[in-house]
């Protein structure tokens, strides 16, 4: 007679119960439909996620193309929004970008374009030759004045107020007397240079930090020079040459010097030496005679080609088409679009898009915004991993300094540039989609797998990134109030929807009380396992965003379980096997109730009706005891029938009936431990009743 198992646990599960408790995303199938759902869980989950929508959502994601299934036809992603003529235009733009680039990876880009646009080497060569003859893009020097070091002191306090001037000068003029003896301001007056730019002055320092960005037009990158001059600003200051003791002459000299800036050195740099990927360079500053070193200046340099006559709107539209063409190519494997694509573009794809953005004068934020728009559209058809959007939102946050000031100040949308409004609309659409998915996350994600947990984490991190950016938060809060409030609502919605979905699959079984009992037991066991997984993996994720998941989880689950359990009070078991099922149901319900201890709010915890679960089973206790007594009687009868002396240790021998009687007592104790009836007095009386076995 073995010990360690409950007296009423020795029972083989029926086929119906096995099918209801076997796993899957949660509770397994109550019907053939749900069995099919679980059998193809991966595709079903992805389809559910892609199509997730809510009645209140302003922008629901709906499938609008044929999916890749069993060799069915796919709709071309590029062709969904653009024509064949647009594809040819994007091809020409891409070839033009590569033809005019100075990047060392030019040969690799040429090969890449032939793959993206299905060009033969001959066709690509002919198109490149045609473009070279027809186009002559303007070149622009992108220059960032970073800092200065070891500059001259020009003021009486031993400091200076340095600022930087810069211009582009043809190398053929470098040795002329006008260049050697004069400065940039003089060159402008005589037309030697076309234009000049300057930084702001940094007060009282010999190690200024500017970090100011400028763009200068280039005529001939092979022969042009960048000229940088450092000056001391003497605006509204009296000159240091004032002569003390000679008041009249001193004031005269002061008046002459007032507002006259002091030269602090200059540097020349040949543009043809700038690498294709740009460089950071420290340039030494010299006097006019170029014999004396007067400190240095640190600069960042890069040359890009700029498309002339292209408006901002046209540039964005062109970049959108090119990005879509690249994504169309990158997202295919063996000619088919990838479902749940990670959107990891190859290096050549990134380089091509970066070069084109530079040619069109688009900043990094505009470029990321275009990619977000394209990937959102791809997601509606084939799904993109949410971690990709999380990364894009992080890029947008890091580039927010390029947003117009009125945008950062949160002024009306009517004041925003069109591209900013489009970016905000896409972020809002992404946020709405993720919230809609989170309202179904208990059905969408498989919490039994690390992949399912990671997908929930990705959705949460994307939301956190959005809500941590104040400019986006204001717009999102108009709909969702706050991230915490929205997620609390999502938790309760997800529990309700999952419970309704799973419980609905058991509806055909409700007519027969015994089938209904077994179905309800499967449902309770599902929620027990689900709650255990949630406490282990999901609660910590939500804690990171400041949300107490388990409290809102039980606030939603408690009324649903209690409402469904009310029929137990009217249930009467038909046979001994049903007594065993009700006891197993009781144990699962008890374990769920014990998990409510994780609800930290004592008021909320006290209000949970599931903590009084034992009241539903009070009428059944007598049947459990009767069942246990019957089993005990069988064990004792068997022990008497086969009574014989056996050795259980090296020192002593006992009768088998004594050993079996000891096992019987252990079984009684084990039953009492399993029961854990909340009311102690009743618990002891129930156990005592078991041992009152009539032989």
Automatic annotation (TrEMBL):
Gene3D superfamilies: 1.10.357.50, C2 domain. Belongs to the unc-13 family. It is found in: Late endosome; Recycling endosome. This is Protein unc-13 homolog D. One of its GO terms (biological process) is exocytosis. One of its GO terms (cellular component) is recycling endosome. Pfam families: C2 (PF00168), MUN (PF06292). It comes from the Eukaryota. The lineage of its organism: Eukaryota, Metazoa, Porifera, Demospongiae, Heteroscleromorpha.
